[in-house]
Amino acid sequence: MKGTASVFDVQAMCNAAQEIYQTKNTTFDTCNEGLNQAQQLLDETQTEEQISKTMLDVAIGVEMAKHAIVIELEARLAVALAELAAVTPDPIAMAAVGMKIEEIGSQLIPARQEYEEAVRHREALEHRYELAVKCVNLAKERMDTLQMKFEAGKRSIEGITDKGCARLDLAYHDLTQYISRITPEAREGLNRWFNDKPEKNTPVRPNEIRDKLDVNEPITDAILEYLYATDAGFRANVDGYCNEMRAGDQVGAELKIKKQMVGRLCEEIVIRAFKPISTTISTQAKESLPDGRYTKVDMIVYGLTNPLVLGRGEGMGARERGSLAVEVKSGHSSYLYQQLSHLQDQAYGHKGCDASCVICTRDIHDLSFEKENELREKLREAGSPMIGMLPRKDDLDNRCIHFVKGKIKDV
After folding, report:
1. pLDDT for res 71
2. Rounded CA separation 336/367 (Å)
3. How far, in Å, CA of 200 to CA of 32, rounded?
4. Which tens digits make up the pLDDT trace of 157-212?
5. Are 196 and 305 in contact (CB under 8 A)?
6. 3-state class of 280 per DSSP?
7. Are 187 and 221 in contact (CB under 8 A)?
8. In this structure, is the dihedral angle defined by the CA atoms of residues 175, 178, 184 and 189, taken in order, positive or negative?
9. For residue 9, what pLDDT is reported?
10. Residue 216 CA, distance from chain mean position
């Protein structure tokens, strides 16, 4: 949509839903094709089994017939041998019986050979039939396994698709409603904030970072609106605050907003501030500490597209293609000072990056000169200098509370 920040490209959400459904249908078609192929293989093996069984039955019949001939000839030979014994020593009778024995023997030898060949043929067909039966069993097993897995997978995909597209529909509705309320000028400002990139090979300096982090109300509202539309967990939390306010517990709801929602907003502001000059940004990476504990790094900016200057002195910048570890803290001055020890531990988890810093709300300036200087110096020594460029905690609290109250009116 022309003039609209790309982060609010609502048509992309419609397109995404269509692509999800198309992917689902393509996956289902692939599953069905696989099942059809498995069924075809099963049909072919069952046909082969039937053919092998018919051939085996014929071979058994032939073997039995050959065996019967052999038995008959052996019986005739036995009778002839008995006759020979009975006519001995009559030479004429013996000669006649001898001719009979010779004739039976000439028939018996090939009959036995044919029978042995029939036995070998039957045994070969038995082996063929056994293999055919095994193939049928394997094909059935494959068919049953594929059917079970495909059906389970299709049910899972169906659920994920329905849930995902329902979320996209909600996001589409929420963002369309939000965009309709803001002016073209505000949209243009959002577009610049979300998407403007510095010129190639141009260093990004502290004043540019400060301007990027000192967000105004339209930008904070846009970030919150986008999170509400696209993040199911964030939406559930906001809806929970709304329900508490409707129930009359406004103080309790506002306290939770200040403790939970503002921190998330600050992290999102920093992520989006550095996104135009990064290749990827990872969040909540675990890093081990020397004493066996671990700390989570709020975010690591990888593949900087421009040289980055955070301030003066060593460790206050990174080269192009370098990395930056960032810890984000929002709170009043007393809270920020109390976090010193914790921030020193977290700074250890930043050592694998080219540069690191702690970005906090401007409440740090409310500390006495001595405490602010102590906080800054100790964190600089730890390797993660503190930069107070985010809006003040009270301002962010009020913006988040105003946003939640607006959601009560929207429902």
Report:
1. 95
2. 9
3. 50
4. 988 888 888 888 877 777 777 776 777 777 777 778 887 888 888 999 988 988 89
5. no
6. strand
7. no
8. negative
9. 64
10. 37
H-state helical runs in 247-281: 250-256, 262-274
User: For tokens 């702690």, what's the residue?
Assistant: 358
- Greater model confidence, 6 or 48: 48
- pLDDT, greater one: 146 or 285: 146
Distance CA 307, CA 17 (A): 38
Compute CA distances 233 → 229, 360, 398, whole Å.
10, 24, 21
Contact (CB, 8 A) for 309 and 279 = no
Task: Please provide the size of the chain in residues.
Answer: 411
Per the DSSP assignment, residues forming a β-bridge with 388 are 360
Kindly report, residue by residue over 309-329, the tens digit of the pLDDT: 987 777 678 889 999 989 999
CA distance 380 to 357: 9
Q: What's the token pair of residue 127?
A: 């082996």
- pLDDT, tens digit, for every residue of 247-266? 999 999 999 999 999 999 99
How does 253-262 read in b/e, with b if 16+ C-beta sit within 10 Å? bbeebbeebb
Token digits of residue 354:
């080219």
Residue closest to 401 by CA, chosen among 259, 260, 258, 263: 258
